[in-house]
């Protein structure tokens, strides 16, 4: 392949700004077709984004001879099925996070990538953003010195109508908001510190507002005896909302938000804010790396193997995996 010609399965909200437009903005990449089961919405998306073809059937898009790569942006319950269908057609896949409903499905997806000799990348796109690349540099160059611990807190107030959305329907999403947001956070920990050595966690449905847990806690030990503690609370008042991660080392502390712009480094009693240019399409740096990987011009920015580790972390934390 000299150019990646994309087809999107599931042209919903995530593709409007975060990812969709980026496929036409990176070198050697072109978005040729989109698919959504609702014909009217599929055609509307194609018209608004100047995409020449649209489908209401995923298999028709997958079998389109012009398309040589598939981006799966549906809810997690269909990630495995669409990934396997693309692999059977000999086409590489870029799939949204979380990789699947659970680690069992994720394992089958990774095994299928090997079986069909197809490339698989997962959209843990924060890995490619300048802010998190800088955080990784600070860690890798030991600017903080020896790192001892990581504390992360995610607290959100319930939003109106949340109970009616697929994000808190475990049959579609795999769980609640933890399954929607924690993949980004836990993947960054894997990216920064390598594989976990031990994982402990608890979860419960505190508010009973929907059929998914809304409070999760975790303790993870990563290599080099780095202790990570995380808390996710999705039943707080608006004034108690929080998104902060603190990485503590012998020389100082690095504080940042995974979903906010907060990023500051405290060294020797002085604190400096780190600022980064706003990205109009947050997935664009990742998509550029995926395109290069699919064209054999670079490494896989987030492999199925790495994403499977994240899925296993999540499953262990909420008690789905021993």
From TrEMBL:
Residues 132-254 form the GFO/IDH/MocA-like oxidoreductase domain. Residues 6-124 form the Gfo/Idh/MocA-like oxidoreductase N-terminal domain. Transmembrane segments: none annotated. InterPro entries: Gfo/Idh/MocA-like_OxRdtase_N, Gfo/Idh/MocA_Oxidoreductase, GFO_IDH_MocA-like_dom, NAD(P)-bd_dom_sf. Coiled coil: none annotated. SUPFAM superfamilies: Glyceraldehyde-3-phosphate dehydrogenase-like, C-terminal domain (SSF55347), NAD(P)-binding Rossmann-fold domains (SSF51735). Pfam families: GFO_IDH_MocA, GFO_IDH_MocA_C3. GO terms for molecular function: nucleotide binding. This is Predicted dehydrogenase.
């Amino acid at each position: 392949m000299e150019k990646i010609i994309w087809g999107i399965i599931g042209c919903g909200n995530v593709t409007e700004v975060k990812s969709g437009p980026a496929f036409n903005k990176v070198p050697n990449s072109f978005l040729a077709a989109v698919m959504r089961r609702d014909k009217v919405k599929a055609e509307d998306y194609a018209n608004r984004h100047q995409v020449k073809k649209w489908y209401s059937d995923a298999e028709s898009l997958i079998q389109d001879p012009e398309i040589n790569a598939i981006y799966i942006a549906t809810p997690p319950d269909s990630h495995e099925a669409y990934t396997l269908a693309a692999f059977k057609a000999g086409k590489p896949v870029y799939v949204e996070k979380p990789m699947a409903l659970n680690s069992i499905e994720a394992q089958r997806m990774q095994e299928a990538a090997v079986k069909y000799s197809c490339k698989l990348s997962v959209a843990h796109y924060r890995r490619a953003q300048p802010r998190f690349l800088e955080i990784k540099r600070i860690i890798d160059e030991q600017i903080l010195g020896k790192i001892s611990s990581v504390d992360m807190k995610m607290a959100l107030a319930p939003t109106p109508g949340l109970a009616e959305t697929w994000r808190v329907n475990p049959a579609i999403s795999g769980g609640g908001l933890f399954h929607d947001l924690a993949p980004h956070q836990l993947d960054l920990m894997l990216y920064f510190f390598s594989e976990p050595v031990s994982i402990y966690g608890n979860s419960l449905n505190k508010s009973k507002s929907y059929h998914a847990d809304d409070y999760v806690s975790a303790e993870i030990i990563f290599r080099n005896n780095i202790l990570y503690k995380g808390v996710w609370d999705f039943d707080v008042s608006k004034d108690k909302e929080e998104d902060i991660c603190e990485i503590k080392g012998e020389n100082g502390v690095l504080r940042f938000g995974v979903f906010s712009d907060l990023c500051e480094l405290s060294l020797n009693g002085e604190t400096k804010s780190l600022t980064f240019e706003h990205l109009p399409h947050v997935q664009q740096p990742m998509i550029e790396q995926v395109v290069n990987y699919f064209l054999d011009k670079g490494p896989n920015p987030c492999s199925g193997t790495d994403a499977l580790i994240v899925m296993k972390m999540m499953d262990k934390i909420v008690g789905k995996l021993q």
